[in-house]
Amino acid sequence: MVDKKNPAPLARDAMAYVLAGGRGTRLMELTDRRAKPAVYFGGKSRIIDFALSNAINSGIRRISVATQYQAHSLIRHLQRGWNFLRTERNESFDILPASQRVAEDMWYAGTADAVYQNIDIIDDYNTKYIVILAGDHVYKMDYEIMLRQHVDTGADVTVGCLEVPSSEASAFGVMHVDGRDRIVEFMEKPKDPPSIPDKPGISLASMGIYVFETKFLMDQLRRDAAAEGSSRDFGKDIIPHIVAKGTAWAHRFPRSCVRSEHEQVSYWKDVGTIDAYWEANTDLTDITPQLDLYDREWPIWTHAEITPPAKFVHDIDGRRGQAISSLVSGDCIVSGAQLRRTLLATGARVNSYSELNEAVVLPQCTIGRGVRLSKVVVDARVEIPEGLVVGEDPEFDAKWFRRTESGVTLITQPMINRYLASK
């Protein structure tokens, strides 16, 4: 007998299917060697860890990740950090690279096709619900709440959504809803996005999160695969068809956003540009950041490397190892250098007389002596030569590195090599 006051968690009978094949071209050279979901974030995590952690923390124990572009770094991370799910406990974790399973000349043609090509694997698990997730956003969310809304409304699909200014909504799939949040129209990246009925100038944008009954979705994917002219995409094909022929409901992100006592807003970030990526990382150095990574009740799981503690050495004027309003990961050595509003990922070395201000430094970097870096993102394993100054001369920065219009500079090793070769 089901206890109506305390029903069994729906997450027990759900699969999370994470779409993690995108390159993330707006991150420029930062995704030359890795897919966007595999990009480092917050010192020790990867972007995909947020969607996966949300699934685990929500109670979902069957997870699949579809990969495609530059997948090695991502697959290696998943194998090292997410191999704790056990089949004997009715848990599973599948990595599903595009492998030409349908035809020799066919990789994943779109987001829906990335699910369709693995229908047989999904069917084997026989879960009642499936939660489709984008693997490239930073947020904390309890999917159980969204699953419960899906069942209570009797929807064919429930779409996770957030409010954005209408002037920015053209970058998203946009929903036109009625007064009950039933979706009456779904438009993929419209030029003139509709506003929410009671909020002029604000639109309801898709988060790339969808809940279906598994059997229903499989039927829709088979129908779409047989349709001529389909782009095999959720936002362009699957969701608009269901809106027109069935019932679709919007799920507003604040209803299921997980916030600690220190978080005042419903935090969600698409860190898909150099500026957004730099800003989201440096925001973590605030006294009370909008995103609380220290929330033990909703941990962000990741591959936990075994490293020695961070170390700060030297204590004389002009050569003092110190960090102010900064995050310093394990295996970092700050040797007579100063950090302000800076994030050092695992294994960084910062040598004497250097100054880093609002710098995001990815793993295994070495910063030479007398370096000054301001408002930069330094890619993994970069060796910054002695005396280099970036962030003070816009013309110099733009000549040798990737400088955005807002003044953030991306530094990669090939850029450093080109600069050194010119000397």
From TrEMBL:
Q: Name one GO molecular function term.
A: glucose-1-phosphate adenylyltransferase activity
Query: What catalytic activity does the UniProt entry give for this protein?
Result: alpha-D-glucose 1-phosphate + ATP + H(+) = ADP-alpha-D-glucose + diphosphate
Q: What EC number(s) are associated with this protein in UniProt?
A: 2.7.7.27
The reply to whether Mitochondrion figures as a keyword in the UniProt entry is no
> So, what pathway does this thing act in?
Glycan biosynthesis; glycogen biosynthesis
> Which Pfam families does this chain map to?
Hexapep_GlmU (PF24894), NTP_transferase (PF00483)
Source organism superkingdom: Bacteria
Q: Which residues participate in alpha-D-glucose 1-phosphate binding? A: Y108, G173, E188, K189, S206
Q: Where is the Nucleotidyl transferase domain?
A: 17-285
Residue ranges constituting the Glucose-1-phosphate adenylyltransferase/Bifunctional protein GlmU-like C-terminal hexapeptide domain according to the UniProt record: 308-411
> Which residue positions does UniProt flag as site: Could play a key role in the communication between the regulatory and the substrate sites?
Q68, W107
Q: Name one GO biological process term.
A: glycogen biosynthetic process
Going by the UniProt record, its keywords in alphabetical order are: ATP-binding, Carbohydrate metabolism, Glycogen biosynthesis, Glycogen metabolism, Nucleotide-binding, Nucleotidyltransferase, Transferase
How would you summarize the oligomeric state and partners of this protein? Homotetramer.
| Similarity section | Belongs to the bacterial/plant glucose-1-phosphate adenylyltransferase family.
Q: What does this protein do?
A: Involved in the biosynthesis of ADP-glucose, a building block required for the elongation reactions to produce glycogen. Catalyzes the reaction between ATP and alpha-D-glucose 1-phosphate (G1P) to produce pyrophosphate and ADP-Glc.
What is the name attached to this protein's record? Glucose-1-phosphate adenylyltransferase
Q: Can you name the source organism?
A: Pelagibacterium halotolerans (strain DSM 22347 / JCM 15775 / CGMCC 1.7692 / B2)
Primary gene name = glgC
